[in-house]
């Protein structure tokens, strides 16, 4: 089993962070030090790296995944590489292995990666190449996804008819790579937006099928309606879905991007949230502040009202809000918390 597989089985709070690869090389380089800081200060169980549907971010996603997995996050990495022979243990954050080649050195900030991978609008050869590359990089966790249609197209087309749904990718990875990868899949507490009727039960049947095909954990679409989430979670368990389900939590960072994002994935925004945001919507600092307290509140409720222990935090590549959410829950230095230590979430709700 991979470390992720062990994490999701543990009965204590844990969290994962999601990052997307920035568009430019400079943007990527700028992200490294932030990821390194968040990795060491906030102790995520693992880090997710997103994937552009159709393989549009292949090079950048793999680069980010490789750097995080190996802990090669030092901003001066390229200089360090050039001076590989001079790199001594501890210097520049690297530990010397295999005779001092910086490419194979494992940095102090090494962290398990869960690489997202979509299976539509790509040829099978491209999937094979990515899985092989992931293996070589030491990435042992894949979030197996179908993918959305490219921008401007309403429907996606399966470039290879063998890959119509995420389940086809789950099966394929199992068939080709056995148990090497720990496989996660996506879940939709409000039903998938593909269908106008948003039939939640149909989606639950498809989720169960993904579990039966070999998926080991679920990360949900972002949501803001905790009641709906908890009802869906109970329905999943009643339908025989036994694998861990991590709620996808995205702290609100900015009013317009929040509305755009929730529209895009058709997440319902409860009226009290809309009411709270309305008078502060043009004050970015106030919106962020509210976003932090809303996320704390959501996580604390889910923690106290269910057996869920793992939470997936969408960082939008930002640091502060996620840090403050974990701080608010009393969790950031608390990975070893006892299973029945509810003081953090209880205090967070009481302070509300
Ligand atoms: P599926 O599981 O295939 O489900 C898609 C739809 O098909 C659902 O309505 C489902 O009910 C239905 N369905 C499933 N199986 C069957 C079947 N056997 N027969 C008939 N219908 C079926 N997209 C990206 O491009 N890159 C990313 O990095 C990315 N990360 C994501 C992370 C998370 C946590 C989530 C929730 C989504 C992410 N997405 C990403 C978006 C995702 O690709 C889309 O939501 C996509 O529309 C569906 O992907 P899926 O894997 O859930 O597909």
From TrEMBL:
Its cofactor is FAD. Keywords: FAD, Flavoprotein, Oxidoreductase. One of its GO terms (cellular component) is cytosol. The keyword Transport does not apply. Pathway: One-carbon metabolism; tetrahydrofolate interconversion. GO terms for molecular function: FAD binding; methylenetetrahydrofolate reductase [NAD(P)H] activity. The keyword Repressor does not apply. One of its GO terms (biological process) is methionine biosynthetic process. Residues 344-352 have a biased composition (Low complexity). Belongs to the methylenetetrahydrofolate reductase family. This is Related to MET12 - methylenetetrahydrofolate reductase. It comes from Pseudozyma flocculosa. The lineage of its organism: Eukaryota, Fungi, Dikarya, Basidiomycota, Ustilaginomycotina. The chain holds residues 33 to 384 of 702 of the full protein.
């Amino acid at each position: 089993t991979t470390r992720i597989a062990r994490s999701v089985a543990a009965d204590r709070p844990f969290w994962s962070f999601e990052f997307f690869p920035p568009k430019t090389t400079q943007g990527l380089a700028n992200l490294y030090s932030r990821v390194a800081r968040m990795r060491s200060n906030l102790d995520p169980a693992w880090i997710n790296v997103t994937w552009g549907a159709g393989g549009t971010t292949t090079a950048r996603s793999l680069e980010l995944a490789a750097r995080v997995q190996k802990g090669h996050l030092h901003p001066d990495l390229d200089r360090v590489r050039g001076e590989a022979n001079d790199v001594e243990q501890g210097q520049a954050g690297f530990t010397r292995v295999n005779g001092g080649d910086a490419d194979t050195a494992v940095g102090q900030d090494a962290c398990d990666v869960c690489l997202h991978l979509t299976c539509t609008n790509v040829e099978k050869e491209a999937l094979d190449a990515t899985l092989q590359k992931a293996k070589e990089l030491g990435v042992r966790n894949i979030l197996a996804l179908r993918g959305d249609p490219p921008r401007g197209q309403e429907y996606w087309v399966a470039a290879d008819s063998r890959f119509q749904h995420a389940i086809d990718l789950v099966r394929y990875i199992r068939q080709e790579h056995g148990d090497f990868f720990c496989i996660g899949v996506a879940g939709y507490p409000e039903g998938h937006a593909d269908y106008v009727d948003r039939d939640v039960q149909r989606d639950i049947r498809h989720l169960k099928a993904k579990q039966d095909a070999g998926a080991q954990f679920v990360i949900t679409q972002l949501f803001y309606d905790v009641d709906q989430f908890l009802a869906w979670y109970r329905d999943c368990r009643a339908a025989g879905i036994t694998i861990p389900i991590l709620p996808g939590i995205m702290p609100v960072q900015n009013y317009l991007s929040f509305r755009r994002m929730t529209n895009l994935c058709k997440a319902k925004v409860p009226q009290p949230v809309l009411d709270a945001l309305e008078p502060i919507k043009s004050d970015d600092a106030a919106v962020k502040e509210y976003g932090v307290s809303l996320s704390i509140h959501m996580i604390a409720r889910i923690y106290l009202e269910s057996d869920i222990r793992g939470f997936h935090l969408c960082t939008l590549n930002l640091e502060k809000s996620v840090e403050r959410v974990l701080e608010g829950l009393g969790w950031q230095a608390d990975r070893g918390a006892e299973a029945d230590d509810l003081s953090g979430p209880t205090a967070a709700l009481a302070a509300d």
